[in-house]
Amino acid sequence: MSTLDETSTQRPVRVGPTLTGLMLGLLVAMLSSSIISTSLPRIISDLGGTQATLTWTVTAALLTITVTTPIWGKLSDMVGRRALINAALTIFLVGSVVCGLATGPEMLIAGRAVQGVGAGGLLTLVQIVLADIISPRDRGKYMGLFGAVMAVGTIGGPLLGGFLTDALGWRWNFYSAIPVAVISLVVVSITLRVPRRNTRVHIDYAGALLISAGVSGLLIWVSQAGNWFPWLSVTSLVLGCGSVILLILAVIVEARAKEPIIPLSLFRNRGFVLTVLASLSVGVATYGTAVFVSQYLQLSRGASTTESGLIALPQLIAVTIASTVAGALISRTGKWKPWMIVGASSLAVGVTMLGMLTVSTPMPYLWVAMALVGIGIGCVMQNLVLMAEINVDPRQVGVASAGVAFFRSLGGTIGVTLLGAILSIRAQSVVQSNATELQTAGIDAGTVDLTKIADLQTLGQPLRGIVEEAYARGVADAFLYSAPLAIVTIIAIALLPARELSTRTRGQRIEDLETEVVETSAGMSGTVPTLDEGITEDSRA
């Protein structure tokens, strides 16, 4: 009969220190993407790079985070969690060192790609380990803390990056993560004890390769089309169609694989599918507010990078308070749906308000809109992972958690890219509609390239006023087009099965299932079968 090792059931997990280590790891993973946003122009200039270098510095990490997320999740269901977290932290450390020591654009891009692999593991595994050591009912309050950490990493990163660049130099955007990651590595190594299943590992190499190649091609296509090559071009056609074909092949391979990276059976689970749908809007809102509000403030209102970071503080504060309060209420009452619907509704209202921005919108209006978006993200984002976990077999918690993170990242990235294209088209149309006024000032509207305008102070009138109006309208349109996604989130959450939050951890739930199987089999045959899978402690694996 399958049993838990004595130490894994009797020795309690040191939750406090373990959670501290996990939160530090999550923090550096979130900061890795946001901290360099305000420093990129100086970094690329110092390294002698080009606009393509800047694009790939961002895209390289984004690609590796997205494509490795489901792989980390699947591996976590097959091998020890602690070993994987240590591996992710180590990979992240190596990438950070390479970036900090970069002597040229190629070395920087390579370091960012390595950083992304480690960050993808951290973003996935931290959520999964929470399911191992804390029951769903108790996890709400901890999800709030982790949601606050993610908010600080995403929204506070640009402000921290700008400060470090001005005070110590841009390389400290990377070096500053090293001591934090080392502390996380040490704490997790010492304190984390979670049971793992002894089972033969079957790695789906073909599925991993096809998913990685297909998703990478898709992200490159949507992010670079219109910049490096026209949307309607042979390159665009080959890249787009090729990516779709690879993903179709991936589905075929996954359907036949013994241990698929993303089990297709998950998509027959209504709760998981609804969770994925709901997470798309949250992904777009999280990425979109960081990208588009910053553009609005700097290119429509003349704010500096530091000022735009400070103006975003209401959203950061709202995420922190909402995630903490909602998590505590969910843990206390066991009721999750009302708080998530309130959060999704707040998100919808906030995004719609941002869709009404103009060049002269009062700042208090913007603060209220951003706070509403923050409340929505805080109430919904982390709890969607919890919803995925309680709706699947406990043995699939790892791949389900990774699946939600994967589709949130993929959908958010593609959504923001497409909304960015809408912003550009709308902004450029505003410039063209003012061609006569520009012509009077001796400026040909056809020569105004909005993608190359980084500082309003360098522009004279009437061009500056027209550019400010163009970006205000473009950003507003981008948010209006994303508002329907928030409605989808409300509907998806409302349709989620009203499952109760268990008070038992993942390991205990697996043990319950195995006991039930043994008792059922014994009752049918009169004998007690021997399960070929046992559970041992990570530290003894």
Automatic annotation (TrEMBL):
Transmembrane segments: 21-40, 52-72, 84-103, 109-130, 142-160, 172-192, 204-222, 228-252, 272-297, 309-330, 339-359, 365-385, 397-423, 478-498
GO cellular component: plasma membrane
Organism domain of life: Bacteria
InterPro entries found in the cross-reference section: EmrB-like, MFS, MFS_dom, MFS_trans_sf
UniProt keyword annotation of Membrane present: yes
Membrane topology qualifier: Multi-pass membrane protein
Domain annotation Major facilitator superfamily (MFS) profile: ranges: 18-501
Keywords: Cell membrane, Membrane, Transmembrane, Transmembrane helix, Transport
Region (Disordered) residue spans: 521-541
MF-aspect GO terms: transmembrane transporter activity
Subcellular location: Cell membrane
One Pfam entry name: MFS_1
Matching PROSITE patterns: MFS (PS50850)
SUPFAM superfamilies referenced in this protein's UniProt entry, alphabetically: MFS general substrate transporter
Family (UniProt): Belongs to the major facilitator superfamily. TCR/Tet family.
Protein name: MFS transporter
